[in-house]
Write a structure and sequence with these properties.
Elements lengths: L8 E5 L3 H18 L8 H6 L11 E7 L9 E10 L9 E2 L6 E2 L3 E9 L8 H15 L4 E7 L3 H9 L3 E2 L11 E7 L2
Parallel strand pairs: 6-7
Antiparallel strand pairs: 1-2, 2-3, 3-6, 4-5, 7-9, 8-9
């Protein structure tokens, strides 16, 4: 009976120069695979300033690596990023303290750049990355995690839904066609 899917996968916060370079390569592979112009997200400056908005303690820049690889160095399977985000006032869902007297603004994090290299697909790497990012968002005190994806990415949409995300209203303007906005309450 072999190892369960995902058993040889390690998730690590990218902090060293080699790890940050691996994240940048993963991000570039993601954008190439996506085949869309995402310059409206200031993508190039994001690459130049890694870890940038994804730095701890408010964010996460996570690499999935293969523990079973006999190759020297990192054997990167994929990546995901988490960052704090301000959403428009009309998106906020205010918490009620029970008595209705004190309300607070919710804290939001955004998942970005989930990508798994083609040769690692089918090993549950994306699911492991999503779960780790959500766990870190909880630990960091966020109330909700949001993301955007494209409707044509049906496997990604299905994966997010299976992890508890639901379609939500737009929390920022994305000019691409077929954008799907999703969110998950952590409280």
């Amino acid at each position: 009976m072999g190892d369960p899917p995902g058993s040889s996968i390690s998730i690590r916060q990218a902090t060293t120069p080699d790890q940050l370079a691996a994240v940048a390569a993963c991000f570039r592979a993601y954008v190439e695979w996506l085949g869309e112009d995402i310059s409206f997200q200031n993508y190039e400056s994001e690459l130049q300033s890694l870890p940038g908005k994804y730095a701890e303690p408010a964010g996460a820049l996570l690499l999935a690596t293969d523990d079973d690889s006999s190759e020297a160095g990192l054997n990167v399977l994929g990546c995901i990023a988490l960052r704090p985000i301000d959403v428009p006032a009309d998106y906020y869902r205010e918490d009620d303290d029970g008595g209705g007297q004190q309300r607070r603004r919710r804290r939001y994090a955004e998942l970005k750049r989930l990508f798994v290299y083609p040769e690692a697909r089918g090993r549950r790497v994306a699911r492991v990355l999503i779960r780790e990012a959500i766990g870190r968002a909880r630990e960091q005190g966020y109330d909700e995690v949001v993301l955007d994806t494209l409707g044509r990415m049906t496997a990604a949409v299905s994966l997010y839904k299976s992890e508890g995300f639901q379609e939500v209203g737009a929390y920022y303007h994305n000019p691409l066609n077929g954008v799907v906005y999703m969110g998950m309450s952590l409280r």
